[in-house]
């Protein structure tokens, strides 16, 4: 399985020699592997093993987003992509490796204090705000999505995923908060392009 990855790395001049690979993290979403080659560390992203919802695990879409955001200091740089699912059974891409903590079922000790958790939450919100302030229409994302119909498409898409995925029946309606009104899957206003500035999907 590593041979096609080696060929891609060689084609893009990403170090030389054998590759050591190990999985990073857990879960059933897109899978991340650490690649170590010579003195270089990289990360490979691919969908989980089939069957899976192709649009819900579109790693090439991820790669396009990261590439379009290359002027922003936080995202890792995309190094190579493979659109052909043949070599390893799914499309994949390779990006820079970024050191950090991988969260699974426990938090690192230094994040378990109230101060650290607050700082982490503040940084997350600040980063999201900065991303939404980007002039995305001036980037390679100008034709990336259809923001005018984003809300309705999300409701429809998640509805189809729910209908086609195994799930348990809930015998009675879950309690709703006061004033709650569910969004219709077939009606309702769509946000304007102005109102969704910063969202490209």
Automatic annotation (TrEMBL):
Residues 162-201 are annotated as: Disordered. Residues 21-158 form the Aminoglycoside phosphotransferase domain. InterPro entries: ACAD10_11_N (IPR041726), AGP_Transferase (IPR051678), Aminoglycoside_PTrfase (IPR002575), Kinase-like_dom_sf (IPR011009). Pfam families: APH (PF01636). This is Aminoglycoside phosphotransferase domain-containing protein. Residues 181-201 have a biased composition (Low complexity).
């Amino acid at each position: 399985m590593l041979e096609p990855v080696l060929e891609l790395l060689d084609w893009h001049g990403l170090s030389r020699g054998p590759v050591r690979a190990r999985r990073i993290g857990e879960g059933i979403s897109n899978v991340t592997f650490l690649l170590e080659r010579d003195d270089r560390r990289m990360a490979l992203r691919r969908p989980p093993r089939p069957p899976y919802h192709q649009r819900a695990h579109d790693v090439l879409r991820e790669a396009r987003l990261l590439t379009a955001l290359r002027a922003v200091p936080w995202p890792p740089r995309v190094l190579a992509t493979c659109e052909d699912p043949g070599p390893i059974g799914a499309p994949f891409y390779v990006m820079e490796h970024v050191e950090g903590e991988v969260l699974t079922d426990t938090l690192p000790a230094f994040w378990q204090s109230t101060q650290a958790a607050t700082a982490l939450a503040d940084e997350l919100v600040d980063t999201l705000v900065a991303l939404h302030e980007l002039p995305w229409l001036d980037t390679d994302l100008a034709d990336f999505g259809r923001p005018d119909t984003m809300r309705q498409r999300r409701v429809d898409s998640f509805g189809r995923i729910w209908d086609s995925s195994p799930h348990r029946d809930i015998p009675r309606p879950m309690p709703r908060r006061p004033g709650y009104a569910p969004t219709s899957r077939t009606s309702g206003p769509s946000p304007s392009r102005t109102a969704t500035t910063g969202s490209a999907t």
